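QUALITY CONTROL LOG
STEP: pairwise intake check
CHECKER ROLE: data steward
CRITERIA: each record must contain a sequence immediately followed by its structure tokens, with no blank fields

ENTRY 1 OF 2
RESULT FIELD BELOW
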Amino acid sequence: MERRESGSKRGKQLSDSRLAVEDEAGRRPFMRGIMIHSLMSRGISFEDAFETANRVRDGLKGEGVVTRGELATAIRDLLGELDAPEEAQPLPPPVMIREKGQRRGTPFSKGLLSQSLLAAAIDPQDAFDVALEIEGELSMAGLRECERRDLRRLAFETLRRRLGENPAQRYLVWRHYQSPDRPVMILLGGAPGAGKTTLSLEVARRLGIWRVLSTDSIRQILRLVLSRELVPAIHASSFDAYRVAGDAIGDSPVIEGFRSQASIVSVGARAMMDRAVEENTSMVMDGVSLVPGLIDLSAYDDKADVISVVIANLDTDAYRERFESRARERTPQKYLENLTGILEIQEYFLESADQFGVPIVDNASFEKSVRLILRHVTDTLRKKGQFDAAALL
């Protein structure tokens, strides 16, 4: 049998800095939520279980990998003289969350709650900690059922106490807009390779929006319908559409060709927006064709809440590296060869954003960009003042 390696040596072999637990079944990431659940099942209060799990994680973080026995020893040492029963006690049945007036509900889930808290533009770990605290409060109160409105109030108050007034308000705003009288449409535009699609998927996930579209898909559909001979611009890339657009016009052939293509694709984008209005379904759309001012958003003033953001990469070297890092998914060479044209398109986006008052997010940090977009969305909706905070609480 192979001799078990020491903790420090195993830690060096771990692929990342996360703590892992090893037993006969293999190696698994350390899950604080599982430890808290296990300690509470032994009759330990939520506060003690929460503090113990945090201290175990922080104390063993540098080890990399620990055995289950080492983990149990660390827990016993930290619990000290806590009066915890020797035999496991079953957790109480889950609190049932129901709407006012309804007799049936759904079991409380800290996973679903922490997901909904992400709309407040907070760190995912903070969202999980708030959900854990709320789970503990419900458990200690001995509740068997709770109205959804009371849960919302508890989440709001916990967010405000732990993270401040603004995150709490952002959470409340989005809770209102999850059942809107009209849809919320978030448009993320930007030059090729700015990271729009990745951001749109994460923003939609954190807001609980299931409809996510890209103008790249719209352009591909139009290519099947409109022949190259009829509309050559949509059969080229955004940065070299000018090569097939005929005689160069204007001071910048690249921008003229790009505008020609974007104007055609924006027709399909408007069709998707119109359908979202008809179905009262919120959505996130991203794409290089979503140039500020190209679509008349005033046509939706009384139908939807449309919020635009431009995604950019203001560091040219970082922009180049982004294309090089995409080599596994697609050939980056054509993007690198046309980087000058892509930067010209980005500059056009920045000028258009400035002209039409659209915020710009410099996508230097993915997590920071996601939170900036979420903050802009919820703050914009809050400023419109079309919801009654008191009624929600």
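ENTRY 2 OF 2
RESULT FIELD BELOW
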Amino acid sequence: MLNRSSKIWLIAKRELRDQLRDWRMLTPMLILALGFPFFMNEVSYRTINFINQFGGPPIIVDRLVPASIFIIGFFPVTVALVIALEAFVGEKERGTIEPLLSSPLNSKDLYLGKLLAGASTPILASYLSITVYLILVSRQQLQMPPIGIIAQLFALTTAHGILMISAAIIVSIQSTSIKSANLMASFIVVPVAILMQSEAGMLFWEGDDARTLWFIVIGIFVLSTLLIRLGMAHFHREYLLGREIDELNIRQLSKSFWQAFKGKAISVRNWYSITVRESLQRLRTPLLVTTVLAIAAFAVGYQWTITNVPSMLERASSQNVTNFTELLKKSPDLQTLGRDISVTYLFRHNVRTMVIILILGIVSFSVLGMFIYLINAALIGGVLGVFQIIGLSPLNLFLYGILPHGIFELPALLLASATVLRLGIMLVTPQLGKSMGDIFIELLADWAKVFIGLVVPLLAVAAMVEVYVTPTLLLSILK
């Protein structure tokens, strides 16, 4: 019998053979991969001459070639994305899906084989395009990027390609026609394009020492792994064969959400004692994980502050100190905090933060949502570290400046983040008999139960305490 890698390669080889003999697919890809670098090389050359002629910033000249590599590596993947988009739904429209699904290969082998074939061609086309561009740059009066930056750009191109192809394979599984799959492609290309703009900004800002980009590469690979896991978890052969049309039934979706939200409750008291209680029981492990992560982020923020801030202050210029002083003067006074910041403002701000954590968690399988959560925990540690540096007691700050409203606000943050963490984990966990939509509605209802039933009331009380109680207590120790 064939081992797993041989089975995966068998599917991939079949797909690659079909791709390479289809001239209508191969010709545009080769034209773009080989022709676009010449266009970008001409644009870079003329742009640099224009900047030098009018005395533009040298940093733009130095970073123009790496930024062009970003674009050159991105375009072949977007064009070849159609290969992954029609991986399964294309087989269905051509009538070849039944023989493929009836083969003795298991579902994971089929999925990974399609993924390998769908990712190989676009990524290799991007490599070819970047290589051609670097050869052109080396023959002209353009500054070649350092080898470290080139390695980062190749790694980012690979990460972007795997991320986009992984998402495209999921779209192909969930779609019922090639037309609908192609329309869904914009939800893949646009977010990655926005991500690339941020990465290009980091490259311009950090220069040759752009270490942050390596963390982004790792994060994209983690997100791609979660997408692959999601696709395999919801890949069912019978589902591909049986589905003919997708219908957006708002009434049915609303009914399913309401049933999951209400549960078996017949009153508000019953809802808290049964439905919300069941949701909290399912959050035991996520709550433990989020608590441990919060403590770790708090410790990291505190340690980083007391280690690095003193040296940063020593290197600060007089202008930096003046600007910082002016910024502090504009901050709200503790004695007039109740007039400067209202309870409503704080409450809306905290609720908005929880909703942002949910939205980011949905689009990244909890990764970005947990990132925002950890930043909040690290900021608390950083503030306590600043108090330590200026000679005040961090313990007093915590007891009088954070704990009074934190008794309510921190549990709310933990609960909201734990539900988002569970949402991401459950989405990538196989559950027989349930579609991805059914699972998502149930998880969203679980979040709504905890958010409306517990988080919102806790945030309301926390906002009142933070405005009317915490400033008084904090002012007493600062005096």
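INTAKE CHECK: passed for both entries
DESCRIPTIVE NOTE, ENTRY 2: Residues 394-427 form the longest helix (34 residues).
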